[in-house]
Structures are given as C-alpha cells and as structure tokens.
Automatic annotation (TrEMBL):
PANTHER family: SIALATE O-ACETYLESTERASE. It comes from Cyclobacterium lianum. Pfam families: SASA. GO terms for biological process: carbohydrate metabolic process. One of its GO terms (molecular function) is sialate O-acetylesterase activity. This is Sialate O-acetylesterase. It comes from the Bacteria. InterPro entries: SASA (IPR005181), SGNH_hydro_sf (IPR036514), SIAE (IPR039329). Residues 103-363 form the Sialate O-acetylesterase domain. Residues 1-19 form the signal peptide. Keywords: Hydrolase, Signal.
Length: 483
C-alpha cells in the first residue's frame, strides 16, 4: 500500500511538472516589449486550459489548443515603464518584472556583429560609461537544429551596465546608445548571431527550397541530417542550411520588433552573384515569418580588407558589396557603408563606433522617418564628353567633399571596350566628379572603390558619409556561377 501511495505521489508530481505553464526565454524580467504595435505573447499549458495575461491594467484570455500551445496578441501601448506582465492558469503563474515599452532591434550576422565591446577601439572607456538602464540586452546562446523547436536552450535578458555589456555586440551597443539618447526611448537588443556563418544557415528550409542551388541540400538534410549537434563534427552551421534559423532565430519569432540590423557577408563572398538572390530571399523570409509587414532591415556593407593592389582588377569582396547594394531594391532597407573603416590585415575592424553611428543614421530615416542624411553619395549616371567623364550622384547631402590636399579624387578606374581598367585622375565640380580619361580610347565603363581594399578612397558628402562603391559595367565577375 505504501508503494502504491508513493507511486501515486510521484505520478502527480511528474504530471504537475509536465503540465507547468511554459513560456520561451525571450519573455523574462528586464525585457523590452515593442511599443506602438500589437504584442504577441505565447507559450504552453495543459491542453484546452485557459491562460490569462495581465498587463497595465488590461486582462487578456486565450485557451490552449489540443497540444497545449497558446498565443494571443495584446494591444499596442506607448513607450514607458517599468511595468509588470503576469501570466497564469488555474495551476501555475509567471510574473515578469521591470518590463519596458520601447523599440526592439534584432542583431544578426557573423563575427563582426558578434564582436565584443571590450575588443574595440576605446572599448574599455565605453564599458566604464555603459550605465544605461533603458537599454536592455537579450543574448541567445549558440544552438543548431534542422527542425522547429519551442525555445532556445540558453538566453537571458539583462539591464545594460559595465558588468553586462563588455562581451555584448559592440555594433549593437553603439547603435542602441545613439538611438536611445537621441530619441529618449527604451531599446531592447536581441543578440542572435554566430561568427563565420553563411546567410543560408539563417534562412528557413521553406524559403531555401525555392532556390535551385539549395533545394537538394535542404531536402537531404531534412531526411538524413544529424540529430546530435553536440558532436563537434556536426556542430558546424555552414554544413547545414537553415540550422541557425531553427536553432536560434525561429524560437523568438514572432516577438514583436522594430527592425533588424545585419552584419554578414564575409563568408558568402566567394559566391557573391548567388548572394544577390539569397540575401534578399532571407530578408523576405524573415518578414514573412514574423508576419508584421516589411519591418526595417538595415545592414553593414563589407569593409575594406586584405592588401591593397597597385592596379585595378577583379574582387570577390567588391562583388559582394555590389550584391548588398542591389538588395536596397527591397522596401524599408538601408545600408551603412564602411569602405573607409576596414583594416588590411584584420577582417574585424576595431572601429565599431562608426558602424553603430552609421546604422543609427539609417534607422532614423528608414525606421523613424526623420529628416536626416543617412547615406553617402551613390552613383546616378555618367556622361562621356570627349576625354572626360562626368559622374552624377544621389545622396550628396549638403554637397560632395573630396578629402585630398590638392582636391584630387581617388579610387576611380576607367576601361574601354577591351575591359582593361586604368586608374584615372579626377576632381570635384560642384556635386559632380569629373574624370580625365587621357589616352583611354573610347572609354565605356567606370568603377569606383572596386577592390578588396580600396584604401585610398576619399569621396564623401559634407555629412561625413563615404561614397558607395560602384561600377557602371555589367561584365561577368569572378564569382559568377559559383555555388
């Protein structure tokens, strides 16, 4: 009889644990909820059990489905806080304290987005001054999966302080500090990235199945891929398309966000033409999965890197930058150009402050509709006049600036129909650049900053934003056809 009672007690304890109210780790103390739009709240409970959510004096109620899944959407609220969010069933409850209403930004990409504040220029000083209670940091631990999961194994919210920020994304921190200071709004950062990764690892299998280069791999991985990602041989995201989407990103969807910041592309540079398709595919995929419209998506163009070359030539990194710029054709997108901030011998530029500042400029225009100059000069048109070429630009801001003692612009190359590029001299004439073509017979094409490391570029607008690298030709590049 005693054994029967003990077994019954153990059964009841097990049942209560299994039946406990569950919510993903993105819901926790210190979180930021997105102001100004409906807020999805979701989790698990007993099948068909009623779930109550209370926030700012309003009560919401939803019934779990037959599998115990539930979701509701709270009303839109203005910025403010701190508040308390409570969730309960007849058997269990959760209470989240110090909740702020503000703007939530996702930080995605590879190592340059992951790069810790402590490892940047002036990082130590920035850490000491990082007492920002209205900036909140959410960090997702590394995880892989080839199928949807309910939650990430490791994640936490924390209030930004010298103790919590030193290992956090430097780009994300500098961006948040600028936006929070200038707009006086709480900022939440969802830090979800993994160094050295390719964009297809961050794209859903459903989206990748629409691309012929990945259809077969995705299908094979779904049927034959590993289920033990603790094995070091398997724990390599680039081997498994969609593995980071399901392992790290999808569990936080559809947590309401203001927009996304993306710093990635280095690992896809050898397939830059393909990136023209799979980068916008990833953006469209995220927007579709989040189901909150064309939210702002801003990225960092690749910096200058590797040894500078004496003569103009082909470059896979230049082609990747071109693919990034082409993606600006999607609505509500923006790009931070940092062609002047790279380091020849280090793929991780230490000046992350400038990156965050330029992303913040783009966000002010695209996400907040502020009247700011958010882009450097971009190519508009060229006009060939005898032995000169005139280049016109958009986004000149208050005017073009050539940072040179004698006023000569650098980084321009011109070619004739033979496709052989030569450096040319140029100068500013108002808001145009005039290039002297000299002995180049019948010039047909212009390239600017078209190199892995165009380390002498010096064309800006007066707002201090560098001109975007470009080419006027459509000649086949060195990454064409690479898969």
């Amino acid at each position: 009889m005693r054994k029967i009672c003990l077994l019954a007690a153990l059964y009841l304890l097990f049942f209560q644990v299994e039946a406990a109210l569950k919510m993903p780790r993105v819901f926790a103390d210190h979180m930021v909820l997105q102001r100004g739009q409906e807020i999805p709240v979701w989790g698990e409970a007993d099948p068909r059990q009623w779930v109550n959510v209370n926030f700012q004096g309003k009560k919401y109620r939803v019934r779990a489905d037959r599998e115990g899944k539930w979701m509701l959407k709270m009303d839109a609220y203005p910025q403010g806080g701190p508040y308390t969010l409570s969730v309960d069933t007849k058997d269990d409850s959760k209470v989240f304290e110090n909740v702020m209403m503000g703007d939530v930004w996702l930080l995605g990409g590879q190592s340059n987005m992951e790069w810790a504040l402590k490892n940047t220029n002036n990082g130590e000083d920035s850490i000491k001054a990082a007492d920002h209670p209205n900036i909140r940091l959410f960090e997702v631990g590394r995880n892989l999966s080839l199928e949807p999961i309910d939650d990430v194994p490791e994640a936490r919210w924390s209030v930004c302080s010298p103790e919590t920020v030193e290992n956090f994304s430097a780009v994300g921190y500098y961006f948040a500090r600028r936006i929070q200071t200038d707009l006086d709004v709480p900022i939440g950062l969802l830090d979800i990235n993994w160094g050295g990764t390719v964009s297809e690892a961050w794209t859903s299998a459903e989206a990748l199945m629409s691309h012929e280069d990945f259809r077969e791999r995705v299908a094979t991985n779904k049927t034959e891929g590993p289920r033990d990602f603790s094995d070091p041989e398997n724990r390599k995201p680039n081997l498994w398309p969609s593995s980071l989407y399901y392992g790290m990103l999808e569990p936080v969807i559809p947590f309401a966000i203001k927009g996304a910041l993306w710093y990635q592309g280095e690992s896809n540079a050898g397939r830059s033409y393909q990136y023209r398709e799979i980068f916008p595919l990833m953006i469209r995929d995220w927007r579709e999965q989040w189901d909150q419209g064309d939210f702002p998506f801003l990225w960092v163009q690749l910096a200058n890197f590797r040894a500078a070359k004496e003569e103009p030539g082909d470059s896979d990194w230049a082609e990747l930058r071109e693919a990034q710029s082409m993606t600006l054709s999607l609505p509500n997108t923006g790009q931070a150009v940092i062609i002047d901030k790279g380091e020849a011998d280090d793929i991780h530029p230490r000046d992350k402050w400038t990156v965050g500042e330029r992303l913040a400029r783009a966000a002010k225009k695209i996400a907040y509709d502020m009247d700011v100059v958010y882009s450097g000069p971009t190519f508009r048109s060229m006009e060939i006049q005898d032995d000169q070429i005139r280049i016109s630009f958009d986004h000149v801001g208050s005017g073009l600036v050539v940072k040179d003692k004698y006023g000569y612009v650098k980084g321009f190359a011109v070619a004739g129909a033979d496709k052989k590029f030569q450096w040319v001299k140029g100068y500013r004439d108002g808001n145009q650049i005039v290039l002297e073509t000299g002995d180049i017979a019948d010039p047909v094409a212009v390239r600017y900053a078209w190199a892995d490391n165009p380390d002498d570029v010096n064309l800006y607008n007066k707002e201090g934003l560098p001109a975007n690298p470009f080419r006027t030709d459509e000649w086949q590049g060195i990454t064409y056809g690479k898969k």
